[in-house]
Amino acid sequence: ISSFVRHRTVHKVASPLAFVFDIDGVLIRGDNPLPAAKHALSILDGNNRFGIKIPYLLLTNGGGVSESARCHKLSQQLGMKIDPERFIQAHTVLKSVVHKYADLPVLVLGGKGNTLRKVAEGYGFKHVYTTLDILAWNRSVCPLHDHTVEEREPVKTVDFSKTCFAAIIVFHDPPNWFLDIQVMCDLIQSGGILDGPYQPKHMRKPVDLVFCNPDLVWKSDFDRPRLGQGAFKEAFQGVFKSLTGAPYPYTQFGKPTEATYKFAEQMLRGQLVENSSLDSVLWQQIDVALLDNPESDIAGANAARWKSILVRTGVYDPRQGPPSHRPTHEVEDVEQAVQLALEQEF
Ligand code: G3P
Ligand code: MG
To answer: Which spans of this chain does the record mark as coiled coil (predicted)?
Structure first.
């Protein structure tokens, strides 16, 4: 039995080696699992020299559907059960702030309209609207929107001239930038009532603005990284500044923000891990994070004092020079990362 297990067993250290995995660019690209991903996860699932299940968490800036729906799809993609208790996505952290808006009208952006509405209602938001609801109320809100696209998602029938929005929450990467930026600019300048008069900055009721993923780019299955929610934020702020003279203040969640990492640690602490070779143990810390995006992933891991291993299968491309944030190690893929971490017994 190696020193690793003996040390953990004898001293009953309540924090076995625990991993955090990023998803896009580390485990999957688009809809396809990376070749190394299945073996890397099976090593942690017990196929290792310690003969024990080694705990891990998935932490992604992705989103747009419920945690259970995403985990169901990931389980199919990766060929093993991914438990929603081990999964945090961009907007999961909103569960910790829903109390601020639970009884107030909020506009949610990103993903498919009604699907996202159900995610928000599942967190406890009670008055959830989408920009497609707004179009159904008055399609002249955005004359440039492609109305030929039949929206398959059901909409809510509401008179938005009587609805005062408290917040705009960007859960996931929005697909309809023209419509969404138009509605965001209307709501903020009118103090929350869509067709209300634009008011001077010092007079208007503030509308809170929240983004859940700062990624300017992310790794899908195209050869080069693709624009993400961070690009949408830049586009909105550029338009809003041109209209009003200044960008609009907002709250940012998602990797690398501290709120998301604290939420992940809290989730781990609440997690009792039954492990066949060790007594039931309590996670108290992350030991190593396996990541592909230096700007969000490595920056966040460094700030959270997690050890990090940067893989070359995602956003980071060594041909473009060294990473903007220094990882603990750099390897080819996630399987090499898991093997290195277990050898080094971080
Ligand atoms: O929209 C998903 C993208 O921003 C990155 O996802 O898994 O690499 O954090 P992930
Ligand atoms: Mg990634």
So the answer is: none
